[in-house]
Amino acid sequence: MTDQARRSITIDRVERGRYTVHNIRGGTIEVGSGEGSDFTAVELLLAAIGCCTAADVDQLATRRCLPASFVVNVSGDKVRHPELGNRMENLEVEFAVEFPAGPDGDAARAVLPDAIARSHDRLCTVSRTVELGSPIRTSY
């Protein structure tokens, strides 16, 4: 693995149940427990799945025509299992994309299903990791 392939973030505790996530480019996200407007960790997981596949589809489909509307909804069920532990199930990514009328819009609409399939089956690092699974090593 090269250094260019390695990704990392840093998390600082702000107060009980609130954290600030930092990337190496200076970006931050506030994360909370769901009591305020901050995103929860589970919502960030859903956002990561949705944003990753949205970026793929955006790159592939909008080469032909800019969309009039491009919305991605991501949902799932949080399950508390006594033996297997907490996890998300029934994850679903739903695209609602509209292109203008005309030949360019028709061309974009025609590639949209393939773009979504390519993202799901091969391109989206986040959803591929979730579906295939990857061990997580923790340390202190």
Key features?
30% strand; 140 residues; two-stranded antiparallel ribbon; 5 strands; alpha+beta
What's the structural blueprint in terms of helices and strands?
Elements: E1 10-15, E2 18-22, E3 28-31, H1 41-61, E4 69-81, E5 85-98, H2 103-123, H3 125-132
Antiparallel strand pairs: 1-2, 2-3, 4-5
How does this model look, in words?
The mean pLDDT is 94. With 140 residues, the protein is α+β, with helices and mostly antiparallel strands. Helix 1 (41-61) crosses helix 2 (103-123). Helices cover 36% and strands 30% of the residues. Strand 2 and strand 3 (28-31) form a beta hairpin. A three-stranded antiparallel β-sheet has the order 1-2-3, with no helix packed on it. It has a two-stranded antiparallel ribbon with strand order 4-5. It is globular and about 55 Å long.
